[in-house]
Write a structure and sequence with these properties.
disordered N terminus; seven-stranded mixed beta sheet; 194 residues; globular; 6 helices; Rossmann fold; alpha/beta
């Protein structure tokens, strides 16, 4: 356990399903002196998630929990969260919907990053839907997780202009850059009030 002078960093867990670029970004940010958090646990529902590489690289405890039975999976997750004294859960491309009882148990302590300007475009294929609807802007939102999909109170948002020749891939790339700036900022903001 690293000793920290002054204010002690709070333990956070990151739930992932895929590439883990937001996870990598949060880990890098947590290593900075001014960061209020330390990534102590990574949970993935996908044993082939590329993001697990970052957990291993930075020597962070990681668990693969299959979500074929949500009750059993969430029991295992809760056990890990307690064992590691986790103060906040960050969903970073976690492609499973958490149960109402799990959300209730960690009320106000789960945040998610979503690639749209919520409340618009909840769910999947956000970039293509924004382009199809001729939106001028899209972006990303960090919000608290509640029992309705992508509907919790918004913590921070960042607007990104949609360009004339944008494809969903090009737009996704530009929005991801903003996600990487927004997520640690939102995390530090939330932890300041915990």
């Amino acid at each position: 356990m690293q000793k920290l002078t002054g204010n002690k960093k709070k333990n956070v867990a990151v739930f992932i399903s895929g590439n883990g670029s937001n996870l990598k970004n949060l880990i890098n940010h947590s290593l900075k002196k001014k960061s209020k958090f330390k990534v102590c646990l990574v949970i993935s529902n996908n044993s082939k998630a590329k993001g697990l590489y970052f957990a291993k690289k930075f020597n962070i405890k990681n668990k693969i929990i299959k979500y074929s039975n949500i009750k059993i999976a969430e029991k295992k997750a809760i056990l890990e969260l307690k064992k590691n004294n986790i103060k906040l859960i960050c969903l970073a491309g976690f492609m499973k919907i958490l149960s109402k009882s799990f959300i209730k148990k960690f009320c106000g302590k789960i945040i998610n990053i979503h690639p749209s300007l919520l409340p618009k475009y909840k769910g999947l294929n956000t970039h293509q839907r924004a382009i199809n609807n001729n939106e001028r802007y899209s972006g990303c939102s960090v919000h608290y997780v509640n029992q309705k999909l992508d509907s919790g109170k918004i913590i921070l948002q960042k607007k990104v202009k949609i360009l004339k020749n944008d494809t969903s891939k090009k737009l996704a790339k530009r929005i991801l850059k903003q996600e990487h700036l927004l997520f640690p900022k939102a995390l530090n903001k939330v932890l300041s009030s915990l």
